[in-house]
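> forwarded from #structure-qc
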C-alpha cells in the first residue's frame, strides 16, 4: 500500500513538473517575442532580460501585475505575434505567483549578453568616475553583478536605460529612496556620461 501511494505521488509530481515546464516554455516564447531570442535583445529600446537576478525579475513582474509601473505600449519584434501591440501590465495580469517565479528563474539561468552598441569613449571614462562615486555601492563591478539584486546596467541597451532614467527623474517610475536621493544629485551631463559608461562594457 505504501509503495502504491508513493508511486501515485511520484506520477503526480512528475505531471506537475511537466506542466510547469510547459508553462515556462510557452511564456518564454512570448517574452522572447519582445526581448529577443533567449531573452537577449537586439533593439536599443528593449532591455535584455537574460541573466537578470530572479528576485529582481520577479519583483518587476509583480509590480507590472499590480499596474504600479508605467506600462507603455510596445510591439512584438519577432515570432508569431510580430507587429502586435501589448504592454507589460497586460502580459503580467494573468500570471500566477508560481508562473512569475518560474519564468524569472528561467531567465536568471541564461547568460547575459552585453549589447554591441556605439558609445563615446571620453564620456564613458567620465561615466566610470561618476559610477564609482555615486552608484558603485549598490551596483558593484561596474553595474555588472546580478548578485547585487539591483539589475544589470553594464552592457544593457543605452536607449532603454536612457528612458528608464528619464522615468525616474520625472517621478513617473517609483524608485527606492536611497536611489532617488542619488539620482537627484546627478546632473544631465552625469547621466549622459553614465549611459555611455554602461554602453562601453561589451
Amino acid at each position: 500500500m505504501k509503495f502504491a501511494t508513493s508511486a501515485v505521488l511520484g506520477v503526480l509530481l512528475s505531471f506537475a513538473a511537466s506542466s510547469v515546464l510547459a508553462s515556462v516554455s510557452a511564456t518564454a516564447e512570448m517574452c522572447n517575442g519582445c526581448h529577443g531570442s533567449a531573452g537577449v535583445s537586439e533593439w536599443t529600446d528593449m532591455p535584455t532580460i537574460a541573466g537578470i537576478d530572479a528576485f529582481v525579475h520577479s519583483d518587476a513582474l509583480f509590480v507590472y501585475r499590480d499596474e504600479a509601473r508605467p506600462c507603455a505600449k510596445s510591439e512584438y519584434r519577432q515570432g508569431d505575434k510580430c507587429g502586435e501591440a501589448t504592454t507589460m501590465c497586460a502580459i503580467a495580469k494573468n500570471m500566477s505567483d508560481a508562473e512569475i517565479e518560474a519564468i524569472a528563474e528561467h531567465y536568471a539561468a541564461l547568460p547575459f549578453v552585453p549589447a554591441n552598441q556605439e558609445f563615446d569613449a571620453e564620456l564613458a571614462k567620465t561615466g566610470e568616475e561618476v559610477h564609482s562615486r555615486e552608484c558603485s555601492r549598490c551596483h558593484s563591478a561596474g553595474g555588472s553583478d546580478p548578485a547585487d539584486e539591483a539589475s544589470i546596467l553594464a552592457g544593457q541597451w543605452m536607449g532603454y536605460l536612457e528612458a528608464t532614467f528619464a522615468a525616474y527623474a520625472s517621478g513617473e517610475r517609483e524608485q527606492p529612496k536611497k536611489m532617488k536621493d542619488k539620482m537627484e544629485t546627478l546632473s544631465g551631463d552625469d547621466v549622459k556620461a553614465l549611459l555611455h559608461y554602461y554602453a562601453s562594457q561589451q
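QC bot note: Residues 121-200 form a domain with the Cytochrome Bc1 Complex; Chain D, domain 2 fold (CATH 1.10.760.10). Residues 1-18 have pLDDT under 50 and may be disordered.
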